[in-house]
Structures are given as structure tokens and as C-alpha cells.
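Intended use. Records like the one below are meant for learning the mapping from a protein sequence to its folded structure. Do not use them to infer anything beyond what is encoded.
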Amino acid sequence: MRAAWLLLPALAALSAYYVYLPLPGAVSDPWKLMLLDATFRAVQQTCHLIHYLRLSHHLIVLNYLICTFDKLKSVSSEDIKITDAVFDGVEVRVFEPPAKGDESLKRSVVYIHGGGWALASARTSLYNNLCRIMAESLNAVVVSVEYRLVPKVWFPEQYHDALRATRHFLQPDVLAEYSVDPSRIAISGDSAGGNLAAAVCQQLSKDEDLPVRPKLQALIYPVLQAFDFNTPSYQQNMNMPVLPRYVMINYWIDYINGNYDLAHELLINNHTALNVGRALSFHARLNWTSLLPPSFKKNYKPVVQSTGTEAIVERLPALLDVRAMPLLADDATLARQPRTYMLICENDVLRDDGAMYAARLERAGVPVTLDHFHDCFHGCMIFTVWPTDFSAGVQTRSSYIKWLDENL
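Structure written out for the chain above:
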């Protein structure tokens, strides 16, 4: 009995040590965020152990756990009709609000979910809930794209899936089938889905034969480059919950089918050093010293290696492929992009990706709304339902939907 009384405080102390993380004072719901992050880390460590034992790939196990505990069946309700379909070989989930007597056509959003190109699904409750609320609030048809995931496929297959599904939906006969107004369509996505949404928009802008083009793009804390892992936000938030820097680097390695042994080389920007000839032309397009405001730059210094490892880019050409890195696009491509909404969070390694893209789009003449949340963190917009209900999630989701409602 006495041993139990000694053991319990020790376990409590160990648990508190595992859960506690020093966080910026402005982060909303800090203890809830610590608990969420501790749960993520525990599950990820278990999945990595399974991977180490060669029982299964850790991402397959992790996604299996997510989908097993969080999957919803395709059901319809009185308010929103939810159906699963296939658009040019790509699975999608379509959310349709009921028809109203005073209108014949509805606006629409093509939504591409996040998850590091490897996790989550259009069918999980987090994204099912988001898309249902969007359909209700906007009285819009929402198409949620179920692209294939790492490690079953790698870049560029996720990009091709998102592009094929979007192109199929933009065909006049398909839009007519869903009673969608061709002049009121947005392309949107969060995190890795924001990456795919931006890349899809860039390609659609070059497609001369496309009969219908998106009116808007709305990008939620998108990941847009693997060129520089030492932007101010990467340095400032390197250990932030949900998406620390090393996790984002590993997601990139997984996406482009690289090797984890390269993680340190990428971390110190050896792949884009000044002696890497193929990277030289892109430095000006990602020069955060000229693209970011002083409040973002603070006292951080650029990390530009004079001598690096050119073999990395030769082995992994996707590191400089604009389809994977929309921030690398040239000015002419950016000038063709639609009106843009960019949501970024202060406590996020990807904050500067979105801010730099917004700045480059504005310089190219594209109208941009940059929505910067000082107390929010990466991924917060989908966390609105108990037990992962964050005030940051409701706040960001409301602002995002309000902008779509006013501009779409």
C-alpha cells in the first residue's frame, strides 16, 4: 500500500513532465494544446515503434488509427445531402444544401484536406464537420477531395489526384448536374491541402482549354516550400505543438519519397546552398528579408550555406518542382491567380510560407486578404468539436467562412 502511495505521485510527475511544454503567452487554450500534443506524440511514438519492428509503415498505422476512431459513413440528412462519388478516377465527398425556391444555381467550394499528404480523409469527422458547416453557412456545394496518400503513392500523385478531380468538377455538364454557378467557384485547402490547392490553381491558370476557372482561392496555413527551413517562423516555432519543424521536414521527405537520413541536410539548408546551381534562380523568389514585415523578421538571420550538397537535388528533383513548391512559381504564373484569402497563425512554422506567398501575389497584382491570427496554432481550424474543441478553431473557421461568404 505504501509503495502505491509513492508510485502514484511519481507517475503523476512523469505525466506532467511529458505533457508540459513552454508555450508563448498568447496561445489560446495552452493546457488543452499541451494535452493534444502529448496525445499526438504518444501515438506517433507507438507507430514508429511498430515501423521499427517492421510490422507496418508508421504512417499506415497512424492513419488506420485516425480513420478507425474517426470515420463517418456516407449519410444524408434533412439539412445537407452527403454523397460519395468518383471524379475522373478520384474519390470525392459532395455536400449539397437543399434547393431553395428563389435560386437556381449555387456557389461552390472544392476543398482539399490537410494531413501532411499522408494522413486524414475527407470522410473523417473533423473534415466532414468542416465541409458540412461550410455547405450550410454558405448555401454552397462543397466537394471534398479524397486524394491518395503517402506511403501508397508519393509526389506527384497527390497533386494529380487533386487536379483531375477539380478539372472534372469544372466541366459545364458536371456543374449543371450539381446546380453550381460556373462563375462562383473557390478552390481551398488547409496545410498540405493548401499546398495542393495552390498548385492546382497555378496549373488551372495555364490551361487554355478550361471552360470554367475558379473565382477565388482560399489557403489555410498552407505549406508552400521546402527551400528554406530557417525562415523566421521555422526558427521561432521549431518546437511548437502539432507541427514542430522536424515533423514538417519528415512530411516533406515522405511526400517526395526521400530518405530520413537527409533530414539534417535539409534542416541546415544544404540542399539550397549557393553552390547548388539548380537552386540559384529561386533564391530571390523566397527572399524573406524583403517579403516579410519587420514584425515577422524580428532579429532572425537568414541561413544560407555557401557550400552544400547538390546531390540532394539531383536525387530528389521534387525539391525544386513548382508543382510541389508553389512559392517557387514565377511572377507571370502568380499574376494569373484568382483573388486570394490567406489564413496564417503566429505560432506555426508555416506562417512565413503563407505570408511570403501573399506578398508575392500582391506584387504580381492579385488582390489578397492576409488573415493573421496572433494566438492560434497550426491545424487549429479543424479542432472545433469535443474533446478537441479550441476557441482558436471556432475563431479561424468563422473568419474563413465570413470571407468566402462576402467574396464568393
